[in-house]
Each structure stands twice: as structure tokens, then as C-alpha cells.
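Q: Here's a chain of 459 amino acids. Please give me its 3D structure as C-alpha cells.
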Amino acid sequence: MSTEFKQLTLTDLLLNRPGTFTFRLVLGAFGIALRLFFRRIETVNADVVPKGTGVIFVMNHPNGLIDPALVFVALPRKISFLAKSTLFRMPVISFLLRTVEALPLYRKIDAGEDVSKNQKTFELCRSLLQRGGSIALFPEGVSHNSPKLLPAKTGAARIALGAVSVSKTTGPLDLRVVPVGLYYTSKTTFRSDALLHFGEPFIVSPVELDAEGQPIREAVKALTAKIEGALREVTLNAETESDLYTAQIAEEILASAERNEYLGEKLEFLQKFVIGTSDDTVNKEKKALREKLIDYDKKLDNHGIGPEHLSLAQFSRGSVIKQALLQIWPLVLLSPLAIAGAIIHYPAYRLCGKAADLYSKHDADDIASTVKVLAGMVFMPLTWLIVAGIVYYFLGWKSALLSMPLAFVCSYIALRALEETEELRGWAKAIWLFLTRREAFLRMFVERRELHQELREFD
């Protein structure tokens, strides 16, 4: 299967889809919120998703409600999600779940839940799939911080087999399972990147049912294993956090020399590197490479720079200074609007962070990013209304109306200015090192080039 990368624009996230006015409003709100929270949202092989047939999307679950929200806004076809039942008791979230027609899933790990109610949910899923609809669920069962997939639960397999096997009385059902790997460069960090990697769909075949009309255990176990295997192909699985950290160092070094255009390419390299260096049986050269990467990263950290900054070694002092000035002047020009936007929105930004700290967990699930996005959807518009109210009091309604889009523009300029300032801070340290300790700088550049050559085998 050829690999197709696509970076989603705001227009892509706001596609017109059948649904009520409230449904479209929620779709638009989440599309805008996610596009602002993430600097880049990308898909890999989204075109493989079947049309006109029943589909079960199975996904890994690293990031709370952000995971289903991404799939919700990134796909043109309508999806019903299976969400843990306890979320349906949370005031705002329950409204959103019912609006997008999510279905409750009752889990043993949630205190006081009656898991027998899942039978009704499974029946609704089967009916939806037999009508050519689609559902999305998370076989791992919980949102987590593990660097690898958790063992898959059997729910997805039971729903799939139940749907195709029951349908034998009314004719064959064309049901596909589509694995979707979700990857975040830093899932709780504002303006990080997100990726949806769609795997090759596979057909679910009918099986024998037991005396109670349920798929036999062996068939459920086999399909669950197949689902888990398909998910492993589209996700990053490191045995330890140390393995993952080393892989990220390697990717940064490789990308600094030949910038990967797509986030999907970054994930492909990370997968190959983790597989090639994490096994206990890897040879001495691979183990030595890992140690060199860690030592090199510490050396760069001591200087406060990253591997990409070493590219300055290829230029003269004059061209480096000239380029630095060209980068700075737009920030200086827009600084009044950026400062105003930062001051106005600072309370909302801090409130979002506090909310995420207070509600980082819901039962066994990690929902910090979810809280940040939902809080931002509340506190940012509230900030604009407060600004408009203050302006109305002093200057009248015309100025108040003008203040709301102006506040939004200032917030966006402040956001971009902060991003640029943070990036320029690293370049400023690199330029100073380049000008004052050129020999040490060049040695690190040569070392980066040597490491890059060793990493090429994983690319």
C-alpha cells in the first residue's frame, strides 16, 4: 500500500456533514479548537477508509477525549463512538456525547457500573453496522501514558463478529475493521502536533454462535489478536520510556540534517528505530549508538541548543547575522499587538492550565489535554465578551463590537509571536556559540553528521 500524507487545514476540519444544527455546531467548535491547540494535524492513508459499508474504527487511546475528537473532525463520514458510561454523568461532556450520538460502554474498572448493560449497547452497534454505519472504539479500554499498547479487550471483536454472524439470516454483511494509530509529539503541550495513521482495512467473516447467540470464544480471541496486531502496525510501541526518549533524540538528529516534511515520516522512522534498537539481542554497535545519542543530547542540552541549530556551521558569520535580523523585525513590528494579546488572554491561559492540573484524571483515564481544550473553548470566548463589556462601558456599542474580532486577532498574533520567540531563543544561543566558540560548534556539527550517517539505516 502506497503511503499518502496529508496535512489538514481548518477547512478540512469543518466539512459539511449530515446532521442537526447542534451537531454541526459541535463539529465546527471542536474543529477550530483542535486546530488552535495543535500546530499541525496530519493524516496518513485516510483514503483507505471504505465508503458505503459498515466500518469499525479501532484506535489506541493515549489522550482522553482528544482521541475521538480528532477522528470525529478528521473523517468525512459520520461515526458513533463508544465512550465509558461515567462520562455521560458529566454535565458538559455528556451533552457533547449525546449530540454526536455516542453510545455508553460499561467497564468493570468503573465503580458501581452494571456491565450487563453492555448487551444493549452491543445490540445498537450491530444494528448500526448492519445499516452501513460506522462506530469507533478503543480496544485498550482506558486512556493511558504507557509508551506501548495495552492488551486489547474483546469488545470490538465481539461487536464485529456478532454483527456479521447475526446477519446470516438476512444476507451477508460487508463489515470492515480499520485500525487507526494516534500519535502526538507532546499530547498535553499547547501547539504540539497530532497524527492519525489509518491502517489497511480488513473484512470480518461470520462465525458460529454459541447457545446464547454469542460468537464462540475462540473466534473472539482470534479476531482480538488480529485487531491488536493491526494496531501495532500503525502505532509507536516502545518497551520503556528510555527507549522512546532515545528514539526521539535520533529522529531530531536525522530531521535536523534533512527535514521531514510530514509528521507521518517522523513516525515511520521512530517505529523502525524502536524495533531495531530496543531488543535485548541487538548487537554491540546498536547499543553503542544508543549510548552515543544520549551523550550527544546531554552535550547539546548543556549549551541550550538542539541539533537543528548546528546547521549554522554551513554559513558565514555575516550571513548568520543578516538572517537573524530578518527573522526579528516582523516580531518587533507586531510586538504591540502581541503584547496586548498576551496580557488580555493570560488569565484564560492560566485558568486552562489550572483546570488541567485539577482534572488530569477521570477514573483510570488520562484527560489532561481534554480539559485544556474544553477549558479553552469556554475561557477564550469569555475573555472576548469581558473585553467587549469593558469597551462598551467606556466607548459604546460600536467599539465593543469591533473589540471582539480585534481581541481574537491579537490573541492569534500573540500565539504566533510566542512560538517564534521560543524558537528564536534557541537560535540566539546557537548564534552566540557560533560566534564565540566556533571550533566547539564545528566539532558538534561534525559529530551530528557522523551520527546522521549511522541513523540512515533506519530511515
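Q: Can you summarize the key feature?
A: DSSP finds 14 helices and eleven strands in the chain.
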